[in-house]
Specification:
7 helices; single chain; two-stranded antiparallel ribbon; three-stranded antiparallel sheet; 5 strands; alpha+beta; 22% strand
């Protein structure tokens, strides 16, 4: 099946993959859903290769829930400050802080395994992997802290 421009554009919009990578996935898979899965596998493989590289840049994002009784801080790291200034990186950091405030994970590993609060078909790890694949850098959740009024230390 030869990929048409409309399918390539749709696949790019949904996955964040490049034009040529989207076209290659559609050509190899022969089906849109299979191509989407193929891109997910390729992205995970690339992210795994990059996971050993140092991620010493990034940002700390805060989220305070309405009413001001619950909040969270998340440190999200990347390899370069260029990626840390990317709006998608900043959006992920905000979403992660919101996830921590809402779901009270015990550790970074527990957070990564949680279903994403806005789309339960994806895990938090899937979100991080997608961004790592689209930026070409190692992206890591370094640490987080959740705060709640009246909670014991």
């Amino acid at each position: 099946m030869a990929a048409n421009a409309k399918e390539v554009a749709r696949l790019r919009a949904e996955t964040g993959a490049g034009v040529m990578e989207s076209k290659r996935a559609l050509d190899e898979a022969g089906d849109y859903d299979k191509a989407k899965e193929l891109l997910k596998q390729w992205g995970a493989a690339r992210a795994e290769k990059k996971s050993e590289r140092a991620a010493n840049q990034g940002l700390i994002e805060a989220y305070i829930h309405a009413g001001g009784r619950v909040g969270a801080l998340v440190e999200l790291n990347s390899e370069t400050d260029f990626v840390a200034r990317n709006p998608e990186f900043q959006k992920l950091a905000k979403e992660l802080a919101m996830q921590v405030a809402a779901m009270e994970p015990e550790s970074v590993d527990a957070l990564l395994a949680q279903p994403y609060i806005r789309d339960s078909s994806a895990t938090v790890k899937d979100l991080v992997t997608r961004l790592a694949a689209s930026t070409g850098e190692n992206i890591q959740i370094r640490r987080f802290q959740r705060f709640s009024l009246g909670a014991a230390d």
